[in-house]
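Writing this down once: the sequence line spells out the residues, with the fold written below as integer tokens. I am pasting one below:
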Amino acid sequence: MVRKAKDHRPEERDQQQPDQERAGADETVTRTRLAVLRLARRLRQQALPGITPSQQSALAAIEHRGPLTLGELAAFENVRPPSITRIVAALEAERWVERTTDPDDRRVTSVEITTHGRRELKRIRLERNAWLAARLDLLDDDERARLDAALPVLERLIDSIPDPADPADQAGGR
């Protein structure tokens, strides 16, 4: 017995197309998320022992944003104050940051990166860049060109993410 193909009405065909487009978009989302997470994890693993990923992240935030209160740093790093206190204590023990107390309000403590901390971040970045450069050398010219073309899109995506430590972002200012 031969079955006839199902005759789809035009509106059914119209519904199938968005479903297929959504499935393609879902696959793009999943592949992008996995690729970014895997690459970030591998890059984090490139630092020499002695500094944890949480410490590296906090140290980079302090370097980038300048002196921060512990509360501002905790918000930026998206961790609770007791966690940031432990992280900063470890950074301070290595002389990578210095704490200063606000002369007007002795309850407020800020942290600032030291020269030693800047050297540590430079060492980590050089090591990670060397690791990534070796991986990029494995790509052919066409793959490198496609990666270069994708970078502005990834940078725009990153820039669209609200910064928890920036009040303008929290007020919908971005």
